[in-house]
Specification:
It contains eight helices and twelve strands. It is α/β, with parallel strands linked by helices. Helix 6 crosses helix 8.
């Protein structure tokens, strides 16, 4: 049974989503109608969160940042706002996915299943490879037990998408990969040329990883081709 936390203040929208998801016997949905209720429900460690942006007490983007302090599960934003600035901000603060209202039940379930499948594959891969402990680089350390990154004494809790992208980069040092190919590998579906999500998440990673984001030395942009990870100053892997 997958525990889903729905954070939505609109009664009509909330009831429609509950109806959609109620037809799937593998889902159990908890419904929080504001940020305070969401924080309390989040203590139960849901498998995935559906998060509206326009909440009555706290903006959903601000709430996402708060939830990311303790939660690693996928967070899918659901919103009627579809402007680029809002979407980028939502992804930069720890969102894994963004779904614009209105949407069908099939579309919602497809996004939920894609995010759940991706994080399951990631965890299975970690268990199979016994990937635990720390990976240390010259300027930062990755804690594979907590999926966090420590740089300059500050701990950053990575969103599942960010962690998946970073670990892929680390596993393929020196390989140049296009945004389209990276999208298809991480999201497990074609990007169809819309690389905005990839660009946003990579930029967010750079803000965490790079000592000087204006002069990146780890996640390099190869003009006309894509991204390349250079493990400069790699020290140990334990």
């Amino acid at each position: 049974m997958k525990e889903i936390l729905l954070v939505e203040d609109d009664e009509t929208v909330g009831n429609i989503i509950l109806y959609y998801l109620g037809n799937n016997p593998t889902y159990r949905v908890s419904w929080a109608k504001n940020a305070s209720e969401a924080i309390a429900e989040a203590e139960k460690k849901p498998d995935i969160i559906l998060l509206d942006i326009c909440l009555p007490d706290v903006n959903g983007v601000t709430l996402c940042r708060k939830l990311r302090e303790t939660l690693y599960c996928p967070i899918i934003f659901i919103s009627c706002l579809d402007d680029e600035e809002t979407i980028i901000k939502a992804l930069e603060t720890g969102g894994d996915d963004y779904l614009t209202k209105p949407f069908s039940g099939k579309m919602l379930e497809a996004h939920i299943e894609a995010n759940l499948r991706r994080i399951k594959i990631e965890r299975d891969r970690d268990r199979a490879a016994e990937e635990k402990g720390m990976i240390s680089f010259e300027d930062f350390v990755i804690d594979r037990d907590t999926h966090s990154l420590i740089r300059a004494g500050v701990t950053y809790h990575l969103a599942p998408i960010e962690y998946a992208i970073l670990m892929y980069f680390i596993s393929t040092p020196g390989k140049i990969i296009s945004p389209d190919d990276l999208y298809e590998i991480i999201w497990e579906k074609p990007g169809y040329g819309d690389v905005r999500t990839v660009v946003t998440h990579v930029y967010n990673l750079r803000k965490i990883v790079e000592p000087d984001i204006s002069n990146p030395k780890y996640i390099i942009n190869v003009r006309g081709y894509g991204y390349c990870f250079h493990p400069i100053g790699a020290l140990t892997s334990t």
